[in-house]
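User: We ran a pulldown and think these components assemble together. Before we commit to crystallization trials, I'd like a predicted model of the whole complex to look at. Sequences follow.
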Amino acid sequence: MSLLVLTMGLFSLGLYGVLTRRDLVAVLASIEVMLGAATLLLVGLAAAGTPAGPSEGAVEATGVMIIVLAAAEAAIGLALVISVAKRFKTTRVDDLAEVKG
Amino acid sequence: MAEVTLLNSFAPQIACVAGAGVAVALDAFGKRAAAVASVVVATTAGGVLATVAAGDPPALIGDVALSGVGFSGAVALICLIGALVIAGSYRQLTAASHGGGLAALCAVVVAAAGVAAAAADILVLLLALETMALCAYALVWSGRTAGAVEASVKYFVQGAVATGLFVLGLSILFGLYGGSTSYVWIRGVMGSEAGPPVTTAFVLLAVALAYKLGAFPFHSWALDAFEHAPPYASSLLAGVPKLATVVAVMVLFSRSVFAGVPDEYQVWVFAFIAVASMAFGALGGLAQGSYTRMLAYSGVAQIGYALVAVAVGAAGMMPAALLVAAYTVAGSVAFLATAAYRVARPGWDGSIEGLAGLGRERRLLSVALGVALFSLIGMPLTAGFWGKFLVFGAAISYGYWWLALIGVLASVVSFGYYGAVLRSLFFEEAPPPGARAVSPHPGGASAAVGEGEPGADRFAEGAVVAGGLVLLAVGTLPLVFGLSRVLGFLTFG
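Assistant: Here's a predicted model for the assembly, 594 residues in total across the polymer chains.
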């Protein structure tokens, strides 16, 4: 139960950050918090004991996959933020007004 | 033995990735034309391999991939449409800096789409979707205009949130139903139990996939990305990933993991998204002056039609596949036409009025585009008709006549904006040469308004004409031979 509260709290915190922070770097960090919380839930649930699965290593493998995925996403995200910073001389979302909606 | 089977079942996707590798190497030596050509060859080869495999009986290999009739059919379509789009973008890609690398990204999108369509494991599906998305961000960005850079950042942030929701849903299923992420396993452990965790995972995965599809409440990235992306990116991304994702959604929700949960979930969640997307796409598109933004709204509406079939359940699978396949060809062709028109009229500002008179200047291209637009409306004699006919037919026969009614109404409304393009192309006079410089739509495809002499992009025009012919053939041949041949290709074993 405490695991659920912790991970859902972390995930919500990340989501809240994505929705409210106006700086792209902070948004990127919030996304990482969301992915981290989801991975933690995965590993935590497995450690708490699940119905017998096919293999013990599957959880770890899946967790590592998600971490790699998060890293790839961060790499692309940072590259995009750098290109925004170079072009617009800012990383604040409000200052980007070219695109409507 | 297991590896050999796995290798066989993923041969088309491996061919695409190999082509991408060759393209990156060639691009490093500055041989852009050869790089793009190698990608076209590789994706075509992948399409041929998958078409051959489509004759095999369906099979579940280990718990990794499904192959055989239906899934190979979907993979074949993905590869061949990808090849058509990349070939049509030859001129743009060879003109872009690192065009070979961009072509390689396109090939990776095609390969990942093939994996997503054939996935039978949530983790595999997640990785395939994410590979597509990461390439897509870069492809949208590669327009390098202010609009394209900003749209790609927006796309990235929203896509990343969707990934977070997907991972959370995956964690819940994996943690509770233990030890494996394969559809078959989870389905077996979960049974028809439907407690709060299942509901939570269902909603999380549905929302994440709706984001990836650009369905209504989660569509805002799609409008900007498709408006501002360069034509090679928008024509690829508007089609191939959506085909793959719709197939994946059908398999996940109707045929495997959530097949046991009560029907009401599926009906209400997807019927809501479907109705909202159809209404929003049809009505929102009417107000658009920009051709590409109008097509982006049309894409939202088309996903709505496909989700009608998802709401119907397992019986909607084949109709949905046909509808999305028809949309994929027509949508890709419609986006690719922007590349051809931009070369034909260098001062074009991206607006629908700006197309005035081009129907007479580039007749074959415009007629083929007209066929694609008619297919998007769902006119008889085009492929789009059969898709909508079967989807709405399935909805009515399962008692969801109101979904079909809304779909038909949305199609009628959408005639307004497709018709505006046709009217502008064929029934309006071209403006005098001096008057073209004024740009009434600053947001509209601001990029690449290059000055210069009108010319002809033979590759883009050829691809558009080929796509138009395919749509006509699929639309008319069933009248002679019956629909079973077309559907046989898409039957999901």
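The interface with chain A takes residues 123, 126-127, 130, 134, 137-138, 141, 146-147, 149-154, 156-157, 160-161, 163-164, 167-168, 170-172, 174-181, 185, 189, 220, 223-224, 228, 443 of chain B (CB under 8 Å). That may be worth checking against your pulldown data before setting up trials.

User: Thanks, that helps.
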